[in-house]
Design a protein that fits this description.
Helix content: 40-55%
CATH class: Alpha Beta
Radius of gyration: 19 Å
CATH superfamily: Luciferase-like domain
Distance between the termini: 5 Å
Number of strands: 11
Number of domains: 1
CATH topology: TIM Barrel
């Protein structure tokens, strides 16, 4: 069975709206939720980027059932891993065990704000591995002192630690990150339905662990409106992570996507209100072996209508197709 999730996309709604949307998503019957953790939106047209961890704290109090997860937090530049461990432990306590900590190597878009430049990808993966080990050590309790190539920790301890620490997921895009996830993570995260990524994850110790994917969708009763919204706010998604991780500003994404057409976007993102189109968009993830798929409804103002339609039409269709 494939579990269907809801995404709190912090780039396209303010903090109060994000929490309201999640409350409605829980009532609609979504199996889990994830939230992005950005400092900038991808494009100016998205128009938002509140602090994800404050949103998660409010969401933990406003909901009672739906699991929460970062998708994903970079624990290496904008945040020190010791601080990420404290934040994650706190959200796990507030949510009474419903939180999972999704981690990744980050994007220049969000991490450049604290200065220090943007490291090459091999260095970013070294930093991510060191950060994950620090977080895991702090989750074990006791004092942690660490002197590593990228981070120092001086007698840190989590004083409010949940009985069950948050499971850690690692986002993957290639062989090196898949190996890291297989060795250290409790679950794997990916945004493309590539079976090869999951196979490599399995080969490095990931077999039997959850695997979480994410898929943008654009629901609207008027398909042209849905396509226009997807193009206006999500045309960056087709650039690929080798590009998306390097560009430093929304204006950079604006320039990089200026020749992307609405038809290009509609070819990769299901648009409209035919549930069969959405089922077929999910199918490659299910066939690749993903156990959980989080949907991203494009456009903050479109969430209430999407959530109503999901409860009545989309979720029943997906559950029938992937039971």
């Amino acid at each position: 069975m494939v579990h269907i999730g809801y995404t709190m996309m912090t780039e396209q709604a303010g903090p109060r709206d994000l929490v309201d949307h999640l409350v409605r998503a829980e009532a609609a019957g979504f199996d889990f939720s994830v939230t992005s953790d950005h400092y900038f939106p991808w494009l100016r047209s998205q128009g938002h980027s509140p602090y994800a961890w404050s949103v998660l704290g409010a969401a933990a109090q406003a909901t009672s059932r739906i699991p929460l997860m970062t998708y994903v937090t970079c624990p290496t530049v904008r945040y020190h891993p010791a601080v990420v461990a404290q934040k994650a432990a706190t959200v796990q306590l507030l949510s009474e065990g419903r939180f999972r900590l999704g981690l990744g190597a980050g994007e220049n878009l969000n991490e450049h704000v604290v200065g220090g430049g943007w490291r090459p990808v091999d260095v970013r993966h070294e930093m991510l591995e060191e950060a994950v080990r620090i977080i895991q050590a702090l989750f074990e309790g006791g004092h942690v002192t660490h002197r590593g190539p990228h981070f120092q920790v001086d007698s840190a301890r989590l004083w409010d630690l949940p009985d069950v620490p948050p499971p850690i997921g690692i986002a993957v895009s290639g062989a090196r990150s898949c190996g890291l996830a297989g060795r250290l993570a409790d679950l794997v995260i990916a945004t493309e339905p590539k079976k090869a990524l999951l196979d490599t994850f399995d080969d490095h110790g990931g077999r039997g662990k959850p695997r979480v994917g994410q898929l943008p969708v654009s629901h609207d009763p008027d398909r042209k409106t849905a396509v226009h919204r997807a193009h206006a706010q999500f045309r960056w998604s087709g650039l690929g992570w080798k590009v998306n991780s390097e560009l430093p500003h929304p204006d950079s994404f604006e320039e990089a996507t200026r020749f992307v057409t609405p038809d290009d976007v509609a070819a990769s993102i299901p648009c409209g209100d035919d549930p069969d189109d959405f089922v077929e968009a999910v199918r490659p993830y299910a066939e690749a072996g993903f156990t959980e798929i989080a949907l991203v409804q494009i456009g903050g103002e479109s969430q209430p209508r999407f959530l109503d339609w999901s409860e009545k039409t989309l979720l029943p269709a997906l559950r029938e197709a992937f039971a």
